[in-house]
Amino acid sequence: MYDIKALYEAESVQDAIRLLQEHPEAQILAGGSDVLVQIREGRRAGVELVSIYMLDELRGVSIDEEENIRIGSLTSFSHITKDPIIQKYINVLGEAVDMVGGPQIRAIGTIGGNTCNGVTSADSASTLMAWDAIIELTGPEGVRRVPIKDFYIKAKVVDIRPAEIQTAILIPKESYDRCFGHYIKYSMRNALDIATTGCSVNVRLSDDKKTFERVRIGYGVAAPIPCRAYTAEAFLNGKEINDENIKKFAETVLEDINPRDSWRAGKALRQHISVVMAERALRESIRLAGGVVNE
Amino acid sequence: MSNKYIGKAVTRHDAHDKAMGRIKYTDDMCDKGALVIRVLHSTVANGIVKSIDTSEAEKVPGVVRIFTCFDIKEKHYYPTAGHPWSTDPSHQDIADRLIMTDRPLFYGDDIGAVVAEDEVAASQALRILEKSVEYEELPFVLDAQEAMKEGAPQLHEKYPNNVLAHTEIHMGSVEEAIKEPGLTKVEGWYETQPVQHCHIENFICYAYGEGGRTVVVTSTQIPHIVRRVIGQALGMDWGKFRVIKPYVGGGFGNKQDVLYEPLCAWISIQLGGRLVKLDVPREETFISNRIRHAIRYHITSWMRPDGSFAARTIKAWCNNGAYSSHGHAIAAKGLNAFPQLYPCDNIDGETWTVYTNRSVAGAMRGYGMPQASYAFECHAEDCARAMKMDPLEFRRKNLMPVGYYHAFSKNELYSDTFNQCFDKGAEIIGYYDKVEKYKNQTGDIRRGIAVSTFWYNTAVYPIALETSSCRIVMNQDGSVQFQLGETEIGQGADTAAAQMIAEELSIPVDMVHPVSCQDTDITPFGTGVYASRGTYTLGFSVRQTALLLKEKVLEAAHQFTRMPVYNLDLVDGKIVRTTDGRELMTIGELALSKLYTTDGSQHLTAESTYQIKSNAYSFGCCFAEVEVDIPMCRVRLLNIVNVHDCGQVINPILASGQVHGGMSMGIGYALSEKLMWDEKTGRPLNNNLLDYKLSSFMDHPRLNAAFVENYEPTSAYGTKGLGEPPACPVAPAIRNAIGAATGVYINELPLSPHTLFREFTDAGLINDPWRNEQGKESK
Amino acid sequence: MATQLLMAKDPAEAIGSKTASAAFIAGGTEVNRLGSDIAAKADTLISLKKCSGLADIRKEDGCLTIGSMCTFQQLIESDDVPAYLKEAAHFMASRTKRNMATIGGNIAAARSDSYLIPALHAAGAVLNICCKEGECASVAIADYLDEQDKYTDALIVSVSVPTDIVLVSKRYANTAQSHAVLTASAALRDGGLHMAGAVKNVGILHFCDLEKAFMDDPDISEDAIVKMVRECTGLHTSDDMFGSDDYKRYLIGVTVYDLHRQLRGKEV
Amino acid sequence: MSKQYKVVHCTINGKEVEQIVDVRASLTDMLRNDFRLTSVKKGCEVGECGACTVIIDGEGFNSCIYLAVWAEGKEIWTLEGLTGPGGELSDIQQAFIDEGAIQCGFCTPGFIMTSWEIVNSGKEYSDDELRKLLSGHLCRCTGYENIFRAVKKTMLRHLGKFEEAEKVNSQGIADYPEPMPFM
User: Fold this and answer.
1) Residues A70, A10 within the same domain
2) Disruptive mutation site among A59, A104, A276 for chain D (greatest number of D CBs within 10 Å)
3) What is the CATH T-level fold of the domain B31-138+203-279, as seen in this structure?
4) pLDDT tens across C186-205, in order?
5) What is the pTM of this model?
6) Minimal Cα distance from D131: which residue of A?
């Protein structure tokens, strides 16, 4: 049994917003795989909760009229991984969320919850950062859209206003068109684990597949919030696909990330791993995009 | 004659109920109305509890009572180790524990308890209570060697320099032996880490008053010992308690200690015998139950040119945590094994068991031997490399020879076990081809294969009492129930015993019913299961008792068949006249007649105790093949094979299950498991199943268990210990395989990415060009 | 099988929801007892437990108005309730049952072994009944019992009884807890003699012939009375576990004779 | 403070039920305490060990971090539901027995429910895919070996590949022709 002061079950998005206004102290409960665990640990004991778990309207993946890929915030990880649209246009996201915890956690955990708890190790976040996702929030003043890089403010803090809930995550066409990516989750065991460092790279190659038209690389746990290595991206954009450039790109990420020293992993290890992962994820992205690395 | 049941893959007698989900563990039997106990733990690593203000916490609705260490009027210090009691005081375990103490010695020590109507009220009150404790904090020490230094904080007055015990062994003269010319000296420090049992069923017990006594239902390996210790802890007659052990969800040694049964019984008594349940949450299981001893070794060997040992020394520092629990037994076992595994004429060895302000270390599968095997086998590999010998050949040359006899324990190596196991394992995994294939590799991804062995014995004779009692009762249809002192905790002891009885009485095994749930009021006395003693020790009393019962059966058969007993036998459930093989009556008819005859009706039962005065070596080895991704500091275990000589295998499926479980524990011990503390505050850092890296399904390759069955002459059914041996050789085998692949031989566990990164960097396998340019120091 | 329970807040709601397939439940000792099929036949039970205005006892010039939901035990413990009614309430031996059973419930059940009806009948009690259309009426208990079907959807709100009359009662049962084969009462009021009784498996009887016999000849002999009852063709009793037909008739005779003799001893 | 209750209508093990629950209760609490389905075990109560896994609308969930009120309208299966009316075991339960996949039995209910979902999916999974699908369960007794064999054999039998199923033996020495960099 959980130490919950009160539970309000929303029937619709508007109902949820109303409940949040009526109970300004209440916190949002989606899949609960983070919130319920923190309640049991005592960090959130005695909270009021507005449960939005029953809002089927926030589930599912579709392509909207602006050809954005629209992922309902309550879509579970397992459903994202199996979704044909995701598999077709942004399969790396499906792969990334398929590394969260275990199958049961992926059945309950939602991509909205994963992004809203503002934790840098969230497996979906580094990929969403690397694909310039847009976070859609609905509140008393209506719908608001925020680029994910602005959505994350600082560790565990995201740009959600009072009585707002995250309703969708959008990937613009310009972001996913002709784009291929790969995610590596570095953790101490191969399941039921939190990323020590997560690295998501994607590339759009020139038509002749010889040069990088656009490269993006996002990291989890390389900074207090999920981040991008812009300097490294700037260096590689437009460059020819060859070993030298790939290696230089991988080393340049160090200028954008500042992993910390902790008992979970030392700074030196995190730096080293971040460079190795950048290279490997980039090479795999090139392969997926049909490019060949000439020595 | 070939056995009908011994050695056969008889299905576990409780498998059906477990597959249906109707098996009852402790929590499943406890009434929903039980009050919930949550223990208040110390949040300082060393200190004195000045006061606990319970007023605020008592206001929480649903709280029934709050107890604190100040409610303990008479302090009854008690031992917690699951050792058989000794009537000789010098052999008794150290009694240094209290159910609640005002003198916490580690972060997580027990200083109070909340009793509430439900778990929410209990945890609410607990959180308030945690903030209303006034401590006088004292300096603390976490490392064993640091704790021995002058000026280190003293945990127990009677043990200066925190040394619980210090023992030595000396053979020949090392001083003289090392003067021999042409010797090569090999030296090494080896560090093993604290790990936890992580049985999936947390410790749980509940207690209630009945018939002027207190009944304690608990998930334990040692019900009779629990009853004794509750009596000692509460200063009451032992008979005032009845301990019941239902099915257990894994123990691995943690439940071979008395954990919270005394506190739970005491609270029930304070509340007039009300039903109270103490269910330990996973986070507290990690730090407030028992863990494995972290042991640091320093081993030196002087090798002759032919690769034999001239002299050897060993020092071992064993971190025991805040209380004695099993005391010096773990360290002593390791030291005792050192001169036996690689015999040498000149040996100096000493070992210390040291108190530190850390969670209490107790028994865990292997009881000191996984730690010792890691040090011994890493060192053996280092010696082989120093002498440029093939590691396997080096071992074959130096290991305990056939016929070796150990005077103290009277153990004898009757068969060429080591070579047989090496040959079998090498053949299964294809060792020799792969050694060739993986010679001097380069590149980021490299493979390696290696082998390691270990020393292990069975049960605890002569160090402590070894006794086993059994009772068999025959029903009117000739079927039997039997009860044992050895407890079923998942290893299959019940099924093995059933096979033995079916074999001895020659009746179908499905007519042999174990009474698995043990109850100290009913079950014959027994000290439970530990030290891989299960099948070996119960074999003695089971066979003896079965023979006694058979005698009574044949005596009865004489009455009804008029044939002399020496011409009668019990075969396949029938009374048979041996002279012509004629079947005279079925066992069912016999049992029915004997029970209901109006001329000498008798209930057919037998009960006996057997005191075991022998031990048995149980050796084997592990072959590990790994692939190391050097840049990513990751190890992938490609293949692993354990070969064990546990004498005659009673049940191949159960036996291989034990080997798989031991290998799994060994893999985690080698690659990922480690309990960590914050050096500054003494607070545990990763006491939960997310941050403590227990191996998942995806961290294991296929596990291969193989057996070499040398019938053990001293054993009732030729069996030897098998519960713990499989956990011993895996970690060193993986370490040596990583060494073979990368040339980097690491003397520390676990071989996690952190360790590999540091060692590969030091060895130059990892040298990031950017790190030198940007001058970032790498540590 | 009754699946709905309605806790009526006031008489209007209780009566408003009383359909043919609904049944009132007052104290519950009748509806819930073993063998009762009231709940089984109804689809809704309307509980009067929380219904306002049915539980008080009011004294009004020489007579007492008792709320229908007053329990037997309340009657016993009330200072205003006349002794004869307390005696009748005591006929229910079980203290715990008396805490539940109500005066209104006992009347509505109109059992042939009723504890209270003989006394109320002899006392000339008047029932205040409200019907569906909202209008209430005062009905003498004798008339109510004669046309009880007329009032099935009505609610007995209260019972008015005279306080200053002389009334004696008698009850015959094997044990204190078992059903009575005869419960009879006789009263002197309004200048006349009133006798009534509950005869098991027969019903509530108004002994008007016997009243007339006593009035005509106050000294009439016991045998005459007994003979009269034995030969009374209007009375339809039968042999059953409570006694033979002849025994019941004999019992009625001797009982009313004894009651009358007590009354004459206590002539006001 | 008054407690909040709610009626939950759902189907458990094929039977429609209604149950009043405290809104704070987890699904494990409801199944264990209100329906006495004690096969649902508590190992960690934080969604790590998988011992509390039940099947909800065809998917495996950790019932310890699933609110009971969310069960509204769902179809839930626990291990007790896999056994036939006359006690007949499903083939996955029998396989766990035959392959020695059960030791202490505490993780068994959770494992069998996930395995039941796998073998009834009608799909054929590779060894690595099987390991991933079963990776939501921790076991300390078996080293996962016999569990893997039990699930693989049952999966193959469900697909009619009986000989292949019998060939799934314990001598599992695998050879990996190509190096497998971690990515």
Assistant:
1) no
2) A104
3) Aldehyde Oxidoreductase; domain 3 (3.90.1170)
4) 999 988 999 999 999 999 99
5) 0.92
6) A191
